[in-house]
Design a protein that fits this description.
The protein is an alpha/beta fold. The protein has seven helices and nine strands, in the order βαβββαββαβαβααβα. Helix 1 packs across helix 7 and helix 5 packs antiparallel against helix 6. The relative contact order is 0.22. Bound molecules: guanosine-5'-monophosphate (5GP).
């Protein structure tokens, strides 16, 4: 009997929206969901580990892989390149695994074009003001980087109109329940 293909979930949301925490909880409760590890040219943040958080690489290597057609999608975000490896996604979907890609909106729309069966979920901040407050609270980035991120936030919210689902993260537990509901309705 042919193996049933897995489902591909693409989750996007502005930085500071709490998407990382939400996804961590989702995976803890649903260990069968697999999360793709992206390649990026950005510098590791303190505590980030190569091969765990990202595959950290440089621009030349990244662009070589783009030319080789290694990426299912890739995009520039705030001055750095990010991409998802095609081979990993295909191999795991063919094994029947359900996958999560945590990527920004330009990449998400590339996936939707190539794989219309994919499910796009956007995590929305309660408000831009609240998000700005959270971003500044991190205290890890300079003003220019924060302004760059806020610009991307506005663009991404505009882009979320093309997503299948939108979840507002004003309460982590509530957002988690909603996210699980969406995923379970697709898987089962
Ligand atoms: P950060 O630098 O904060 O880890 O990520 C910046 C943005 O890049 C986030 O919106 C994140 O979802 C996105 N991102 C991470 N990996 C990928 C990827 O493989 N492809 C694309 N298109 N975006 C990614």
């Amino acid at each position: 009997m042919e193996q049933k293909k897995g489902k591909l979930f693409v989750i996007s949301g502005s930085s500071g929206v709490g998407k990382g925490t939400l996804l961590k909880k989702l995976i803890e409760k649903n260990p069968k969901l697999e999360v793709s590890i992206s390649a990026t040219t950005r510098q590791p943040r303190p505590g980030e580990i190569d091969g765990v958080n990202y595959f950290f690489t440089d621009k030349d290597e990244f662009l070589k892989e783009v030319e080789n057609g290694d990426f299912l999608e890739w995009a520039e975000f705030n001055g750095n390149y990010y991409g998802t490896k095609q081979a990993w996604v295909e191999r795991n979907l063919n094994k029947g695994r359900n996958l999560i890609l945590e990527i920004e909106t330009k990449g998400a729309l590339q996936i939707k074009n190539k794989m219309p069966d994919s499910v796009l979920i956007f995590i929305m901040p309660p408000s831009i003001e609240e998000l700005e407050h959270r971003l500044r609270g991190r205290n890890t980035e300079d003003e220019e980087t924060i302004q760059g991120r806020l610009h991307e936030v506005r663009r991404e919210i505009e882009c979320s109109k093309n997503y299948d689902y939108t979840i507002v993260n004003d309460d982590l537990e509530k957002a988690l329940v909603e996210l699980e509901k969406v995923i379970n309705s697709v898987i089962h």
